[in-house]
Amino acid sequence: MASFWNRESGLVSVIMATYNYEKYICEALDGLKNQTYSNIEIIIIDDCSTDNTKQVIDNWIKRNEGIFRDFTYVRLPRNCSQTWALNIGFCVSKGEYIAIHDSDDISHKEKLQKQVEYLNQNYNCAVVGTGFKAFTKHINNIVYIPDWLSYNAEKIESNYKNEFKHCVCFGSILFRANILENIIGCKRFVNKANDVFFINEIIRADYIVSNLKEDLLYVRTHPERATEEYKEAMKKMKEESKKIIGKVSVVLPIENNRDSILRSLKDISDQTYSDIEIIIIDDALENSYEEEIIKWYSQYRQENPSFNIKDIIYFRLPIEIGYPWVYNVGSYLSKGEFIVFNTVNSINDNTKISKQVEFLNDNFMYSLIGTNTTEEAPVIKFDDDIEYSYTMEYTPCVNINTIMLRSVVVDHTAGMNKTIDKHEDFEFIYRIINNGYRVQNLKDVLHYEV
Q1: Helix, strand or coil, per DSSP, at residue 193
Q2: 244-449, CATH topology level
Q3: Which residue, among 432, 347, 446, 330, has the nearest Cα to 387 in the 3D structure?
Q4: Tens-of-pLDDT digits for all 450 residues of the chain?
Q5: Considering Cα of 191, then 411, then 3, then 168, what sign does the dihedral take?
Q6: Which residues pair with 41 in a beta bridge?
Q7: CATH 3.90.550.10 residue ranges in the chain?
C-alpha cells in the first residue's frame, strides 16, 4: 500500500469490486470515463468471476486506452467476498482519495469533482457521500429515491453513534485515504451490512462524515435477484467463501530468492498436520516463481500420496505493497479456520502447526497462539505476563513469525496495520489484546532463525 504520507496528491483511486457483472461493468466504466474530474485511477478487483468479466474489461480498455491516470485489473485466484476484495483494492491504491464504486452503478459526470472540491473546502471532513437514485435497465427509469439519507454531519454522527441508524450510501462515498491508517479497511462481522459497520467505525473513530445533497449516483436494481437461478448463484458464492473447519492457511510472502522459497515449501510440507493450504503472496517481485512452485507442488503430490498440503494459491500483486499488507492480503484469500504467518527466513519444528491447532482446539477462550523461538528478540513471555507486557509495559513478547490465529480475528480486525511505523508486530498484538482476544505462547521452541 502506498504510504499514507506518500500518496499522489489529488489522485482519486476508484475501487470497484466485481463478481459476474459482465453485463453492467462497461456502463459503470463509461460513467467514470465521462467524469469532469480527470485525475483518476481505476482499480478493478475481480472476485474470481465465472463469466466473461475479464474479456469484457480487456475489450473496454482497448477502446478507451489512456483515458485514466492509471487502470489496474486484478483477478483474484479464488472468491473471497466483496469485503475482502475492496480491502485488497485499498492495498494497491495510490491516491490521496479513495472512492468506492459498485460495478453495476453509474456515476453522474460531476460526482467525483464535487466530492473532491467538498473535501478540499472542508479539511475537517474525512468522508463525503452523495444522494442517489435507484433505476432499472436505464437511468431514465427511476424506481426509487431514498428518504433515509442524512445531509447534516452532526445528524449523521448522532445516527450512527446513538441509534446505529444507517444514513450514508456506502457505494457513493469518497474518503481521504489516510483514514485507513486507523480503520485498516472493511471488516467481516456478518454476511451482510458490513458497509454499515465500515461507516459506523469511521464515525466512532471521530472522523467527520458528510453527504452532498445532490443525487450524483445511479444505483441499479436487479429484478432478476428474485429468481431461483440468482439465489442459487449467491448460495454457491457464500459456500465458496466459507472457512473450512480444521484447515490451516499458511500465509507465505516470498522474496526474490529461489532457494529460500523452496526451503520454505519443504519446511511446510514436513509438518505433521494433515490439512494445510499455502497462500503465496508475490509482492510484485522482479521474477515470477509461479511456474516453478506449481512444478514443485505437482512433484510433491506425486511423491506423497497422503499429501498434507491440500492446495497452493499463488497471488502476484500488481504493485509492491510491502509489510504488513502482504499478510493481510494473504489472510483475505485464506480458507482455513486457522491462519499462520510464515516467512522464508526461518524454519519450524515439524510439529509446530499440530501443537498450535491442538492448543486452540483445547482452549476455546484463546484466539492467538505463538511459540518459543531461537530468535533473540522479542523476549518471549507466557500466560498473564503477555497481556501485562503489552498493555502496561508496552513491550512485545510474541514473535509475529510464530503465530497462529483464528480466522475470525482477521474478520473482526481486518488484520495488521501501520499506525506505528516499524512496530507493526507490536501494534497488532496490542490491538487484539485490547479488543478482548486472549493470546498465549507455547513454551516449546518450535521456530528457528535461519
Answers
A1: coil
A2: Spore Coat Polysaccharide Biosynthesis Protein SpsA; Chain A (3.90.550)
A3: 432
A4: 666 568 999 999 999 999 999 999 999 999 999 999 999 999 999 999 999 999 999 999 999 999 999 999 999 999 999 999 999 999 999 999 999 999 999 999 999 999 999 999 999 999 999 999 999 989 999 999 999 999 999 999 999 999 989 999 999 999 999 999 999 999 998 767 889 999 999 999 999 999 999 999 999 998 765 555 555 655 665 665 678 999 999 999 999 999 999 999 999 999 999 999 999 999 999 999 999 999 999 999 999 988 999 999 999 999 999 999 999 999 999 999 999 999 999 999 999 999 999 999 999 999 999 999 998 889 999 999 999 999 999 999 999 999 999 999 999 999 999 888 889 999 999 999 999 999 999 999 999 988
A5: positive
A6: 13, 70
A7: 8-225, 244-449
All cell numbers assigned to 190: 456478518
Q: pTM score, two decimals?
A: 0.95
Q: Where do runs of H (alpha helix) occur along 220-343?
A: 228-240, 258-269, 290-303, 325-332
Q: Which 8-state DSSP code applies to residue 379?
A: P
Q: How far apart are CA 303 and CA 294, in angstroms?
A: 14
Exposure of 151 by Cβ count < 10 A (0-12 exposed, 13-18 middle, 19+ buried)?
A: middle
Give the architecture (CATH level 2) of 8-225: Alpha-Beta Complex (3.90)
> How long is the chain?
450
State the cell numbers at 442: 507455547
